[in-house]
Amino acid sequence: MVAGSSVQARDIHGGVHLHHAAPSPRRPPVPRQLLPVPAHFTGRARDLRALDALRAARAGGSAPQVAVVSGPAGVGKTALVSRWLSALAPEFPDGQLYADLRGHTPAGPAGPTEALAGFLRALGAASIPGSLAEQAALWRSLTADLRLVVMLDNALSAAQVRTLLPAAPGSLVVVTSRHRLTGLGVDGAGFHQVGMLDPAAALELFTRGVGGDRVAADRPAAREVVGLCACLPLAVCLAAAQLAARPRRSVAALASALTRGRGPLETLGVEGDTAVRTALDESFATLPAGAADAYRRMGLLPVTRYDGPMVGAVCGVPPEEAEDLLELLLEVNLLEETGTSRAPGARDRYRFHDLVRQHAAGRAETDLPEPERRVTLRRFVDWCLATATAAEALLTPSHRNLPRDYGRQPAPPVAFDAQAPALAWLDEHRYDLMAALRLAAREGWDASTWQLVDAMWPLFLRLRPYDLWNEAHALGLAAARRAGHRAGEGRMLTSGGSGLCHTGRFDEGARWFEDALRHATEDGDERQRAQALHGLGRAHFGAGRTRDAEVHYGHALTLREAIGHTRGAALSRVCLGEIALAHDRPDLAAGRLATARAELVAEGDSYDAARALALLGHATARGGDARTGMRRLLRALVEFENAGSVHWQARTMEYLGQACQEHRAPTEAVRWFTRSLALYDPVSPTDAARLRTRLRETGPGPADAR
Questions:
Q1: Residue 608: enclosing H or E segment and its boundaries?
Q2: Which intervals of the chain are annotated as region Disordered (predicted)?
């Protein structure tokens, strides 16, 4: 039984009639990514008024409003902007986006593609273009008519920000930075400098964190603590958290600890960095041994977000114990909450302030011997590999057939009980996995490098992060070659070649597949040889060389049938069906696709079975049987909706529109093309342009085709 639209097509004499409206495309939830406002936020009324005035002075322009909020590290720029934007949120119904540009982290600033890809996914893009130029173009297209708030935190330079500016004049972009970023003046930016809290506000912040009674009992000591913290909010909050966590300690004792071994107050430093360092040292000294160990090891990791399973893995403790350690660090203000994970178990996630992360890394360098630091990093890589492999085994079991070599016995991976949470974990941890991959490549852990790329296959296949796909496989291929692992090298060549083809680099992809074919032939690996031939078919087909593609697909099919690789044979048959359609031979295509559909259903490959069904429906309709063809297309559409495949939903809707168009039902055709365009718009500018052309040629419809 097929839900949704139905087709009346018993006797077709020029019209195809849809009795129900085409299903609406599923929209992603409106993004709400702003960080929570700190509970004890205080003392910034003047700054908030200045930001309101800054915005009012730049109202009504033809470009998005841009505000740069600058000031020293730890002064509270992020808290201030989070507070300001939280009050403005109702004015921006299309969402709030946040990106940490990591302008001052040891690993270096975030690249623009990382932030852009995150924004595009938040706005509903199911696949992200591979190049920065394409991503930026799609970003401008998607945001042209939206009212968004975009917060770009910890920016290093104007150039890092400029690519991330949306196109809509109704949007607001706020940038925080330690630098003034005056170069953004050419983009119409306004500027606001944040200074230290005044002493009264700093004392109020301290009092809120500690409790009024304790401060009232020794107000002179409280003022001394605030002075020692240079009225820097981060240092004040750290000092207050220490006292809140130790109810029996007096304010005077804290003041004494902060001055122990130090010279006059003038040595605190111009921007209060020394005040923060002193407060951090004191906070660290009060930590229990387990929390101190977690703090050090977290500082070593090349990531910006942490959760219980990750911290448990690097510390060698169960995730539940790690959650308790994270709570201890949160209690003394050494961690900040960033929200709840979408991955299994809905775990909380945390982050370090930049200065705290640097302090944690420094403690690790001081307190942990070099072999122990390497153990920590090795545990991180092994845990990433183990968990990605667990997700891979569930999402693409036929792909999970190469070895896994761990430097140490890995911590238990995250347990997945279904495909959806496994894919959600890969999605949420994609940059953690890439950080682990780069770390493994840098450390010369070659087996872990290429195997981690291999384990990430479902991420690349389902979510299509093309920039990461290509970077990962370049690293993986080099590592497999250094390791002399022939099967690993072959896998990197074929899965990497697919990524190149997806980004339109068909000739380069063909070279990768040719290398894979040569290696497989030398090794006598018939299955891998068939995979390389199939990949060559794909590269030639993408480049428009359909005759060459047909030859390679045909060779792959023959070889796969000979070795009993039923699923692989079915996939080659699907591709041969596409070629038959390209040659306008719908009957031949339908025969190939019907066989492939039956084989894929029998193999339990629901996603590729739906692809075969969509193409079969298209071929059937083109062959003259509109009723059967559209019934198959509607069934395929339901299957793609269940699988969450936006690209193939759009393609199937386009096929439905073509079927209606060919059978003289222009109103129904316009409906399907409009629905298809709505899905293609945030996914593929090329496909969207084709749909707009179809709509113009078909005539006016119920929606604006632009």
A1: helix 606-622
A2: 12-32
